[in-house]
Amino acid sequence: MPSIVIIGAGFGGLGMAVELQRNGFREFTILERAADLGGVWRENTYPGAACDVPSPLYSYSHEPKPKWRQRYSEREDIYAYARGVAERHGLFEHIEFGAEVSAAEFDESTGKWTVLTSDGVARTVDVVISAVGQLSRPAMPDIPGVGAFGGESFHSAQWDHKVDLAGKRVACIGTGASAIQFIPEIQPQVAELTLFQRTAAWVLPKFDTDYKPVHQRVLIEMPGMPSAERFSWWAIGEFVALGLVEFPGIIRLVSGMAQRHLEEQVTDPQLRAELTPDYPIGCKRGLFSNDYFPALTQPNVSLETTGISEIVAEGVRTTDGVVHPADVIIYGTGFKGTEFLWPMKIRGRGGRILSDAWEGGAHAYLGITVPEFPNLFLVYGPNTNLGVGSIIYMLESQARYIRHAVQVLAERPGQYLEVKADIEREYNDALQERLSRTPWNFCSSWYRTASGRITNNWPGTTRSYRRRTRRVKLSDYRLTGAG
Ligand SMILES: Cc1cc2nc3c(=O)[nH]c(=O)nc-3n(C[C@H](O)[C@H](O)[C@H](O)COP(=O)(O)OP(=O)(O)OC[C@H]3O[C@@H](n4cnc5c(N)ncnc54)[C@H](O)[C@@H]3O)c2cc1C
Fold first, then answer.
1. Is 380 in the pocket of ligand 1 (CB under 6 A)?
2. Is the C-beta atom of 33 inside 6 A of ligand 1?
3. pLDDT for the residue numbered 184
4. Percent of the chain with pLDDT over 70
5. Which atom of ligand 1 is nearest to the CA of 343?
6. Is the CB of 51 inside a 6 Å radius of any atom of ligand 1?
7. pLDDT the model gives residue 245
């Protein structure tokens, strides 16, 4: 049986572990840098943090939960669900917490990986599976003077709950997925809220609801219902995903919905104009909220669209020279999404360094395997993020594919598996060609590198990805005997 290290105990790592275990592979260790599991749902404790995918779909297919409290679960419920899955499958005994992987090195003579954690411990294994996520490292903006601020400041993913916002002047920088969730929560408490907006966000209505006991009972008592409910949400997501790549008419429909939502919620023509995006919907991930726009119309809120020139001791200076005084600055500035596997130093066959191989932007066959890095598999790797839909669906496709690869290795002891360079190149050329026709090219976002390459998103439906990842095609790979 191959020995395996999984890096990361978020939904990706946990799902991978369950998939391995259910198929008889028990020799795995999950290395998690934090003191707890849950990934982004452990880290992002900001007020209002919640899912934008209905829970019947944002959950493992093998672990349906009939008793979700609401359609779009809050982060506490998702985090508790992740812990429940880990408990039921006995995963805690496989996890080493406080184990941050700093490096991994492949040895051709033995066909094994040596995985190093920052405490200096080295582990030698046959297979390394990285499940470190795409959004596990907060990004601070490149604004001069960030350290000069005299008040309290923090990133939304590192929310400082000790800071009391009541009666304070708060500056929020950024208008992405996190900001639109926490702004309506903090607006009623603060004295003044200045929201610094670089790009307006397309916001759709959120059709959220509390699940009634009768709904929960139907799911428990009628065996096919959880799958049917999951399927319906999946089909809606697939329909919209088709619009992103194949049928722009669908996207126009969604765009009209977002436009109407803004018009209904914001009557002031100037504010409405400032909140109208100048790029097509779909270019950034769709946002859902019923209370974001209403919060911005409140008398204690001002929207600032002038660019920021620097942070000063008293607050935020904009390019027109005005200083906007603040007691607290909250950075809702997202994550370093394009820096895959960073800052781990991964050394593959022939001493090849992964960050060198990815110099122009990360790429991998099916987002999972990279030439010259045998027996290294990526969960939520390059070009496997979605513009719409549940990431968990993608993680499950990857887990199955990787488990199949592990089976291949188990049947051939002493051999290692490496994707062929030409197969990976052809795959990526076709992928980039398809990506060039998507709306993701029309704005800057965390889906793209500074040079504009789209390294994060999958240009298609989740079904098309699942079809491609159903099984490992051995002709795509080279099997080599160690030594
Ligand atoms: C605020 C927020 C909201 C989101 N909402 C949605 C949503 O509504 N729908 C959706 O589909 N997706 C959403 N996502 C995307 C989310 O990233 C995925 O859905 C999914 O949770 C990714 O799981 P993961 O395990 O791949 O990554 P993560 O959850 O990021 O987990 C990675 C884990 O790896 C650990 N790790 C990282 N580096 C190392 C290292 N060197 N050594 C050891 N451990 C390491 C981290 O500590 C972390 O626990 C959201 C993301 C964020 C940040």
1. yes
2. yes
3. 98
4. 100
5. 41
6. yes
7. 80
36 ligand 1 Cβ < 6 A: no
Q: Which residue's CA lies nearest to atom 17 of ligand 1?
A: 135
- Phi-psi region at 173: left, alpha or beta (left = phi > 0; alpha = psi -120 to 50): beta
Query: How many Cα atoms occupy the beta-carbon half-sphere of 264 within 13 Å?
Result: 12
Of all protein residues, whose CA lies closest to atom 49 belonging to ligand 1? 39
For residue 100, the ligand 1 atom closest to its alpha carbon is 42
Closest atom of ligand 1 relative to the 181 alpha carbon: 1
Q: Hey, whose CA ends up nearest to atom 52 of ligand 1?
A: 40
Give the Å distance between the CA of 9 and the centre of ligand 1: 9
Classify burial at 181, counting beta carbons within 10 Å of its beta carbon; exposed 0-12, middle 13-18, buried 19 or more: buried
pLDDT of amino acid 246: 81
List, for the chain, all residue ranges whose pLDDT scores fall below the cut of 50.
none
Ligand 1 atom 32, closest CA: 132
